[in-house]
Design goal:
alpha/beta; two-stranded parallel ribbon; 3 helices
Length: about 140
């Protein structure tokens, strides 16, 4: 005796629902990822480093120093005198104790870098991650 299989009660709309869920999750992911990575308002050429890449926790906020000495904090250009207060405010809201990222143009003046580091020290920032291009070919 041959018994026919029961017909599926699924419609074509049931097959589309998982696809909509995935697209929605990807949209949220890219919105959050875009908000976490802020770019400075000027172009940077990072310095080179021969050290191995760091494996510590990712940073949440960034400071950039351009070759001409301009400073940006979290994607917004600011004066050196305002950096300490802004960094202190950020440190107060940084409840997960992640390091601050410092991106410096390779042609930037080292005295400007030291002034920024002093302002961060004044703000109580103790953990700073400095980004550089690794190796001889600039990869990494």
């Amino acid at each position: 005796m041959i018994v026919p299989l029961p017909r599926s009660s699924r419609t074509s709309e049931d097959n589309v629902l998982p696809l909509i869920n995935i697209v929605f999750l990807l949209l949220i992911f890219f919105m959050i990822a875009g908000a976490l990575s802020t770019r400075p308002p000027f172009e940077l050429q990072p310095p080179r480093a021969d050290a191995a890449p760091s494996t510590s926790a990712p940073a949440t906020a960034g400071i950039a120093i351009a070759a001409d000495g301009r400073i940006a904090f979290r994607g917004e250009e600011i004066a050196l005198g305002a950096l300490s207060d802004r960094a202190r405010d950020w440190a107060g809201s940084n409840d997960n104790d992640r390091p601050l990222t410092l991106r410096v143009d390779g042609g930037a003046d080292s005295e400007r870098l030291l002034a920024v580091m002093a302002a961060l020290k004044e703000a109580g920032i103790e953990r700073i991650r400095m980004l550089a291009v690794g190796g001889q070919d600039g990869a990494g």
